[in-house]
Prior knowledge:
B: MetI-like fold
Amino acid sequence: MRNLTHNRESRKWLESLIELMLLFSGLISSLVMLAIFVFLVYFTMPIIARGDLLNLMSWNWRPLAGQYGILPMAIGSLFLAVSATLAAYPLGLGICCFIHSLGLRSVARFVLVIIDFMTSVPTVVYGFVSAFLLVPTLRQCFEHGTGFSWFAASVTLTVLVLPTIVLVIHTQLRQLGSESRLTAIALGISPAQTLLWVILPQASRGLVAAALLGFGRALGDTIVSLMVAGNAPQVPHSILDSIRTLTAHIALVVATDVHSATYHSLFLSGLILVTISAMVNASIRWIAGKSGAG
Amino acid sequence: MVRVSERLFVAAAWLSTLMTLAVVGIFVGSLLYRGLGTLGTSLLFGNVPIINALIGKLPVWHGIWPAIVGTLFLVLLSSTMAIPLGLASGIYFAEYAEGRWKDLLSFAVDLLAGTPSIIMGLFGFSLILFLRKAILPGANVCLLLAALCLALLVLPYMVRTTQVALESLPESTRLVGPSLGLTRWENIRHVLLPASSRALLSGVILSVGRAAEDTAVILLTGVVANAGLPASLTDKFEALPFTIYYLAAEYRTPEELDRGFGSALLLLVITVSLFVAARMLQGAFQREWQ
Lengths: 294, 290
């Protein structure tokens, strides 16, 4: 009897110990984000304290002349992410409609497999193929610059974010579709009509979330823009101009400059990126959390 | 009577699907066309005899063997750090955390999952700057640091797949343990974890694939083009994705460009195989429980 109580006591003790360890792991995983943010702020503070913020928030990147403006890179990131999302979104929506009800079922399954395949392609491989296939083609076709351009990066990123957009919209359409398909058939409405007038208007949540996720993915990419956008720190005047994104800027400064003065621009760039991607993620969560009509 | 707008809608759906298939076809086709011929022992080891390269007796300069070993080390090290932590956190989120507390912590993990990978690299880089200033003047970017940052990158995937796997088990399975008088942890340990083992393994494989393909993180944390085989945890290293990036920018001979295509194809084959394995396990898990 005494032995049994003892056993129960030790089991209880072990149980609490394990719960404590799991709690601890959960806390670490959650605190990583905070730690990253704190580090970036910690390294950005001296800039503000010294009054260099205006220098960094300017339009000229000429390290030798003491000008460290990162606004061209911020614009570059924004333009590139927006253009890639704008190109990928209609494509993704079209593919989802095809998979969902317009195309043949066997073809639709094949298309989904291809989309899955696209998610597993390493970014650097997209960049590589783009640099030796797309860039030379652009150079020959347009005779404007080297081909390393906003346009080249935009096309490559479109391919990169497309599966993200497709999978989010597809998941939502599948949920809604199973509810309304039978009703639509009973009413004698064609699949295209059902999709266009019944399902898509209900799918607004997934449609917005897909756009936001695609944008976040495009904004966060480093390798594609580093490999094919040309990396000139300037505001582009044409889509065939070279641009530099914030992410590529971070990689380039760490790789090439040993000057600690240029390091400051790193942390501010990082802070801007983290802030924007956090805002994008928070909006996705807010949209997903809203109850009511899907 | 089909209206014009609906006709256009159907045509647009067909067009976007066909365009995407064509792009993927051209992409894979060109990679196979340029890369398939280069696959072979000379891609890996250059002109060094295989045995000597494998045991590290002779350095390999004209092959990607050191990069492959570097990537293997990175994946092993980062998995060692991320998998136990990710599993434990996932179990905590699925089985212990509740209410607002759970929402708050999950949100932090979601944010981490959505953070651009170069930020993890920048975090590692600033960690070194901090260490140099604070305690270790000799601290420098290295294999261990890169593995740590990669671990941070894959951690949220690990947490999320574990949590989803456990939460998707049916109620009847979750009640097996309690009905037999098992405690909460005993139920997790002897019922829930074994029941979801396939999905958990699938999450591990996906994380490995993510760690193997990422370039941005290692770019800031010590990867170089000519390190040879990794000698220690505190040395600089080579890695397969970086080799591809480097050869694209800095190739000098047609052979080096061929090596780039070969490496790109090899990395693609590796990540796609991992992905297929993960999907098959996930599929088996879903057939078993849903």
